[in-house]
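Re: weekly structure request thread

Next one in the queue (489 aa):
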Amino acid sequence: MADELHEISPVAVEDGDAERIPRVDPGRPPSRADRVARGKSARSEVPLQTHALLVPTELRADPVELLERQAASRVPELVPIRYGRMLVSPFSFYRGAALIMAADLAGTPNSGLRAQLCGDAHMSNFGVFASPERHLVFDVNDFDETAPGPFEWDVKRLAASLEIAGRENGYKAKQRRGVVKAAVTGYREAMRKFAEGSHLAVWYAHLDLDAEMESIRPLLAPSRAKGVDAALAKARTKDSSQAFEKLATVVDGQARIVSDPPLIVRVTELLPDADASDLFAQLTTVISAYRESLPPDRRHLLEEYRFVDMARKVVGVGSVGTRAWILLMEGADSGDPLFLQAKEAQASVLEEFAGASLYSNHGQRVVVGQHLMQGVSDIFLGWQRTKGLDGIERDFYVRQLRDWKGSADPEAMIPSGMSIYARLCGWTLARAHARSGDRVAIASYLGGKSTFDEAIADFASAYADLNARDYAALQAAATSGRVEVKSGL
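Done, posted below.
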């Protein structure tokens, strides 16, 4: 029996899988000393100071061309809305420019230490939502671009977003640098603590805001503390019932989503009546198939609801133009709604530069990455592949539309408040990377000094300059008519 167990993956045994998976390496895992040595070796090969480098060349891709390349696979009439949202400000442009930055990061020094990345870890892709235990937690909340890659790519995207937001808020250079370093120091120090902990300690770690606010509140001015408390209280009201009040109505006893073109359009308005009826029947089958991606208990819960209505919804900045649908489900009656969001999952912007996904279904790629990185995830998180209105098969991931979801407003932050927020983001990103990457090697690589922090702060400032030039390039493209823009939507 001992010989048989030796040939089975420890994960398979612990998870109770019926299928036996041969070990890739039948020996013991690397020791802590080996992992520390790996980090130090990486530091010798790629010194921490080199992460400050950003040297765009004449061969750098045209940023507008990269955006146009993405537009080719998106809903044509929605692409101008994407450009309009990106042109609101340099920070809004940055939110939609994940592909542009991925191409730039591919040319920067690479530590060789990989983890599951968010792929778009800017400051507005962190936020609050409800845990299954009904606690308000803070975590990364966008995983469209998740993929394995060098850990520092996520850190650099977060750092640059803070620098850009600080510039828009009129912070002085010293204040902006302090905000960026708060995030990177928070990441580095958290990673070093996670490196000392057990696997289970890292896996259970999360930021419960009810508990965290007890330490944050004394750091805020009374008026700011009240504002944060009010925002968290408001987040707790954002659920399917609140979404129903805002997005739906009851007509002749039937619950229906209210159209608000072009941002929300019911499926019956996108198709002739006959086609819409066929689509509703098809969607019922699709939802049943999506259930199979859920654990049995969640599958049972979803079966308590019936599909009622569906609409296309424009979401986010970078995601505009990808296909996103909201699905209205009904439980006991119209007073028991459940809103789900089915969002198209295309290939991650990182894959061209960090390696292709292991998953043939990009919806599954998103869901697996989200489970790896988040402390807790939405109970209805699942995936599906389905044929669209145009007959083309596409991948989707599904989750609740709202479940106590809230995010911070960068424009409302003063420097000290953004520093606190930045440190929370840094801790959260470190926890996410520690779950999938070699946290001991990464911590060893980062070291106990602030060398990495200073280098990333330099990088963030340089990238903010580059982002400003790219933003100006999109403005010029809009002025010349190269790209069509719809603003104010």
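The chain has three domains: 1-30, 33-235+410-480, 240-400. The CA atoms of residues 256 and 393 lie 27 Å apart.
Next request, please.
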